[in-house]
Amino acid sequence: AQSVAQPEDQVNVAEGNPLTVKCTYSVSGNPYLFWYVQYPNRGLQFLLKYITGDNLVKGSYGFEAEFNKSQTSFHLKKPSALVSDSALYFCAVRGGTGFQKLVFGTGTRLLVSP
Amino acid sequence: NAGVTQTPKFQVLKTGQSMTLQCAQDMNHNSMYWYRQDPGMGLRLIYYSASEGTTDKGEVPNGYNVSRLNKREFSLRLESAAPSQTSVYFCASSEVGDRYFEQYFGPGTRLTVT
Questions:
Q1: Residue B106: closest CA among B26, B18, B49
Q2: Kind of pairing between the strands at A10-14 and A108-113
Q3: How many beta-carbon pairs under 8 angstroms link A with B?
Q4: What is the rounded distance in angstroms from the CA atom of residue B18 to the CA atom of residue B16?
Q5: Residue A94 with chain B: CB contacts under 8 Å
Q6: B109–A contact, CB cutoff 8 A
Q7: How far apart are CA B80 and CA A44, in angstroms?
Q8: pLDDT digits (tens, 9 = 90+) for B95-112
Q9: Which residues, listed in sequence order, are joined to residue B68 by a DSSP beta bridge?
Q10: Which residues of chain A have pLDDT under 50?
């Protein structure tokens, strides 16, 4: 069975500083990894995904994520945080073959202070 | 394109009452999903429809039923609401239920059962 762990409930960072939101996964076969963001009282929005190829994936709003197969991690990063990045971030994984459901982590709240 | 729409946005039910949550997508997606979001638990899959005419149980199907009315619409029914079903419900869709494709989410329905 596939699973996702987001070890930090909350990450605090000052505006302008780099940010990292951690995600580790467990899946049989090749993993297909996703990051979503949720702003208050809104649905989830897709940020980026890793399917295959380059381990560094670039996405929306200046976010990127690094796939590390040996560490089974897919951390979300941004070089310079903005106050408007404050939101709830979800990592998700899908693996195996055939129709596979997407499994979400429990989410990490990012707070960017001015 | 409206994307994924959900009605209603808010609902308060008494224990034992029934209701149907409506979801529609205009992206010609084949697969549709219903999730519930509870604090500290991330998103949990209730039911999904891999393609028109098929539905399957997800992680937490008890107390719910679904109908894939056509390619656009996927409804979720609570036959006899319980306080444990107080949650935020999200509908999502994707091109196919394959591992490559991201999901698009609706704005959610906030349900309270008293």
A1: B26
A2: parallel
A3: 54
A4: 7
A5: 99
A6: no
A7: 28
A8: 875 566 889 999 999 999
A9: B74
A10: none
Q: What is the distance between the alpha carbons of residues A35 and A59, in angstroms, rounded to a whole number?
A: 9
pLDDT of residue A1: 77
Cis peptide, bond prior to residue A31, ω within 30 of zero: no
**Token representation of residue A101:** 């459901």
Say if residues A90 and A33 touch (Cβ distance below 8 Å). no
List, in order, residues 6 or more apart from B62 with CB less than 8 Å away: none
Which residues on chain A are in Cβ contact (under 8 Å) with B24? none
Q: Kindly write down the DSSP assignment for every residue of A44-100, as one continuous string.
A: EEEEEEE-SS-SEEE-GGG-EEEEETTTTEEEEEESS--GGG-EEEEEEEE-SSSS-
Which residue type does A77 have?
Answer: K
Give, as one character, the DSSP assignment of residue B73. B
Rounded-to-integer distance, Cα A66 and Cα A58, Å? 9
SS3 of B86, please?
coil
Three-state DSSP class for residue A59: coil
Residues (pLDDT < 70) of chain B are 97-100
* Cβ-defined contact of A104 to B106 (cutoff 8 Å): no
User: How many angstroms separate the CA atoms of B97 and A64, rounded?
Assistant: 24
